[in-house]
Target: SUMF1/EgtB/PvdO family nonheme iron enzyme
Amino acid sequence: MKSAPVLSLMARVAACSAFCLLTHCSTTPVPAGGGEAPAATAASPFVNSLGMKFVPVPGTNILMCTTETTEHQWVTGGGAPPLDSWGNSGNQPQWDIGWNEAKKWCEQLSLKEGRRYRLPTNAEWSAAAVGASTPYPWGSAWPPPSNFANYSGEERKIDGMKNYLKGNGVQKLSVIKGFHDGNPTRAAVGSYPANALGIHDLFGNVDEWVSDGPMTRGGSSNSAGDDENTGKKRRELETYYPTSGQSEAGLRLVVER
Ligand SMILES: [Ca+2]
Ligand SMILES: [Ca+2]
Model:
């Protein structure tokens, strides 16, 4: 009595599998050694060959890397070594890279792993900045809470940066009064708390290229949000203010599911 429905179900499954093999599955190439990124959660990220961890971003079809691309990952992935006069550990974010250079690097990694890596779209970046519905990503208060992110804080008032702070022969840098984060330049990625999705440094550290065009999101360790020259007071620290491409830009990867 009960075997007929079971057999019927098995027959349907077999027929469906055969149809799949004859149509979609048999004609969809699966790149060697890779393919589409597997399912991942914030607690169990997808980890790629460079040790990058990727977590889902609700409302999108991508997994986003929980950190900016580091210098070590950039070089291991075939990028040119960084030209950096500041001491670094290799775990600081790669920076001073162009938009086309960043996109090319993503394509190289895609070919190597057989997955679809790329820069996030502007909308995907916004989706990853969850909870940021307030004027600033930390809320509405000014200044930001210390150690929220690596911006241009009072930790830059050190001997080595005097000429920059005074604008002696170089572009004058501003700092956020009353804000401290402990890092006068780039910090090792993941040095500051992750957001609700498990993603670090979306705001601050290095600007991040998006794929829509040569523009960046999130601000950097140079961001003080009080550019007297342009009148864009605090705008670069606003939640949805995209900055134009800057020389200190870095990148953050996404992988398509
Ligand atoms: Ca800082
Ligand atoms: Ca960043």
Observations:
- The CA atoms of residues 193 and 200 lie 6 Å apart.
- Confidence is low (pLDDT under 50) at residues 1-33.
